[in-house]
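Tutorial, part two.
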Amino acid sequence: MLDSILLQGFSDWKLFCVDDQSTDNTQRIIKDYAEKDHRIHLIIRKREPKGAQTCRNIGLELSKGAKYVMWLDSDDLIASYCFEQRVLYMDSRKDIDFGIFPAKTFVKDQWEETDTCYGFPIYSDSLKALLTWTLPMVGWTNIYRRESIVSFHLSWDERLLSMQDSDFNIQAILKGLSFAYAYNEGAKVDYFYRVMVDSSITSKLYTDMHFQSHLYLLNKITESLSSNQKTKYKANLEIYFLIFARLFKYDKNIFIQFLKIRWVKENPSFRIRLIAWRFLGFHFTYKLFFRRIHKNEIDSLSEWKEKMKSYLTSGIVSK
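Running the prediction step on this input gives:
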């Protein structure tokens, strides 16, 4: 990532590398780069809690005076035109608070064939997409006006252990930030998300700490929605909640806490079916109790995959 930043054609940038108190040689590597380029700054996290979300907030605090801000993950790559493409786009779009740019996944080579991309419109309603567990945008697909983030009181939620990007963009939309997909105006893929084949992140999603984080997220999102939005997105929220229910189903105590979420209690039919599914058996009763929701979920995921496939074969992700 550091090397790909140094290859940028756009030169007016500052990089704040916020180290989450790493125990390997990360700090030494960053110091070496910082000694060679004054635009690179090493900052070690000195406050709690530990986590990427805290580091991102620290970076935002340090970026005073910047016109635009972006967040990058340390193990990914960006195209040499990334900064220039994004800045020029935002300069030309005074009407938006953040722009969304195309990105693709990779394992070894950034231009290898892939089956997943981000930063493309999935539905005409991006909030609907996010509430259906599809990802039209992630933190690193976007460039934000710093003054917009500050004026709308937007920040990374430091209580979340996962799903931070999804929450950040959901809150951005709910707070009223305006945005646009640069793909619609010819933007090229400029971010490459590295898929870690042997990652242990997935297993962490099933730990008690992550379960509590998920419960907090579900409460937060539904409490952020207005009554009209809860009605409008009811079918999408059912999919969203059912995905988490499948995570919680083997932990009785967590599942009971899940049933106590206000939105679940406000939808008694959904709640009763959850209880029946949990205590009568998972496999036999799932399609019986959630046939319509399951169909909606399959349809939404199929639509996402079809749209990704069309984007990936359109030539826009080619080198």
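The mean pLDDT is 94. In part three we will examine how such features are distributed along the chain.
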